[in-house]
Design goal:
- It is a single chain.
- The chain has 3 domains: about 30-125, Ubiquitin-like (UB roll) (Roll), CATH 3.10.20.30; about 130-225, Elongation Factor Tu (Ef-tu), domain 3; about 240-365, Nucleotide-binding domain of ferredoxin-NADP reductase (FNR) module (Rossmann fold, 3-Layer(aba) Sandwich), CATH 3.40.50.
- The protein is built from 8 helices and 17 strands.
- The chain has helices at about 1-30, 55-60, 100, 205-215, 250-260, 285-290, 320-330, 345-355; strands at about 35-40, 45-50, 80, 105, 115-120, 130-140, 145-150, 165-170, 180-185, 195-200, 220-225, 240-245, 270-275, 295-300, 315, 335-340, 360-365.
- Strand 12, helix 5 (about 250-260) and strand 13 (about 270-275) form a beta-alpha-beta unit.
- Helix 7 runs parallel beside helix 8 (about 345-355).
- The longest helix has 27 residues, at about 1-30.
- The relative contact order is 0.10.
Length: about 375
């Protein structure tokens, strides 16, 4: 019994100690008024010192992406700080490359605002906002993927297809703190008063458990964004797109947007990998796009199809299917670009196939 109780006591004491230190720091260390100069005077904030930079910025309506909600677990909240804010913390090191360190990149969730700061953030982050929404639809797409549609009422969201949004997850059950998770937007940019996401259930995942087991239609929630840089290029190159599971989301947005804007002269090959037919969804939707868009080709493939499944499409690993089409159907004499959305493992494997077939311009929407 002691074996199980001891770690719990240690964790509890650590949490209490951290809370005490935080309270004492705020009472003893009065940092007073602090100026934050963003992008050489593009925006100047006068704030009270003492809080984390990420939190301080969000309180002023400037939102830095943070898939983990500022808990130091994702490394997304990077910004360039030209002011000396002390040595790199152990919590930052796993997320900073040598190039990041050279450029004075730091994690805003780990830096405390103690003095005047000069920092640089991408200009598009000035367009990120916090939206109040209401859950309009929750649709079961497969046994572990739900489509969630959130209405943001009279508010309007401006984004480029391929971007993502942060869903603010409220406390529920045994989860006592609010957190955030990032999900690609699957709706079209022209649908300015709603945001759709495809959310796959992750075992013991805080956000996905809430979405799949607790979220209700009509529930109020918060969204923050848009964020990201995944998007189609402006070239006329052949688009070779690969996804699996909820990685469908940015491509669903992208292809409907292109169809709506009449960009159907561009050739697109969309490979979607799944294990069995239980993992497939939106087949009819993409077959309908094929009818309207002569240059659009949808290739779903099953890597573990069952003997009794009614399936006459491609079979095998998506990398093998991709390689076969690159060698037999997709014109190698034309410039081709790769677009990948999925897990790091899937992206790495498909990236190798694309490189092997001479495709060097590759864009990623990488998630784990």
């Amino acid at each position: 019994m002691e074996f199980f109780i001891a770690p719990f006591i240690v964790a509890l004491l650590a949490s209490v100690l951290a809370l005490i230190i935080s309270i004492l720091d705020k009472k003893v260390n009065n940092y007073g008024d602090v100026e934050i100069n963003i992008n050489n005077g593009k925006k100047i904030l006068n704030v009270k010192g003492g809080d984390k930079l990420l939190t301080t910025l969000s309180s002023q309506g400037i939102f830095i992406p943070s898939a983990c909600g500022g808990k130091g677990g994702c490394g997304a909240c990077k910004c360039e700080i030209s002011t000396d804010v002390g040595p790199i913390l152990p919590t930052e090191k796993p997320y900073l490359s040598p190039e990041d360190i050279e450029k004075n990149i730091r994690l805003s969730c780990q830096i405390k605002v103690k003095k005047n700061l000069n920092l640089f953030i991408p200009e598009e982050l000035f367009n990120a906002k916090e939206f109040s929404g209401v859950v309009e639809e929750i649709n079961d797409l497969t046994y572990d993927i739900k489509e969630v549609v959130v209405s943001i009422g009279e508010e309007s969201i401006e984004f480029v297809s391929g971007r993502y949004i942060q869903l603010v997850v409220p406390p529920y059950g045994k989860i006592k703190e609010s957190t955030q998770r990032a999900y690609s937007i699957s709706s079209k940019p022209s649908e300015k008063n709603k945001v759709a996401m495809l959310i796959r259930l992750i075992p013991d995942g805080i956000a996905t458990t809430w979405v799949h087991n607790y979220m209700k239609v009509g529930e109020k929630l918060k969204l923050i964004g848009p964020f990201g840089d995944f998007e189609k290029s402006d070239s006329k190159s052949i688009m070779v797109c690969i996804a699996g599971g909820s990685g469908m989301a940015p491509f669903q947005s992208m292809f409907h947007d292109m169809l709506e804007k009449g960009e159907t002269d561009r050739e697109v090959w969309y490979f979607f990998g799944a294990r069995t037919t239980k993992d497939l969804f939106f087949l009819d939707e993409f077959k309908e796009i094929e009818k309207k868009w002569t240059n659009f080709h949808f290739i779903p493939a099953l890597s573990a199809s069952l003997p009794d499944e009614d399936w006459d499409g491609e079979k095998g690993l998506i990398t093998d299917v991709l390689d076969k089409y690159l060698n037999s159907k997709i014109d190698p004499s034309k410039h081709r670009e790769g677009f990948l959305c999925g897990s790091p493992g899937m992206i790495g494997a498909c990236n190798n196939i694309l490189n092997h077939n001479g495709i060097k311009d590759i864009f990623y929407d990488n998630f784990s």
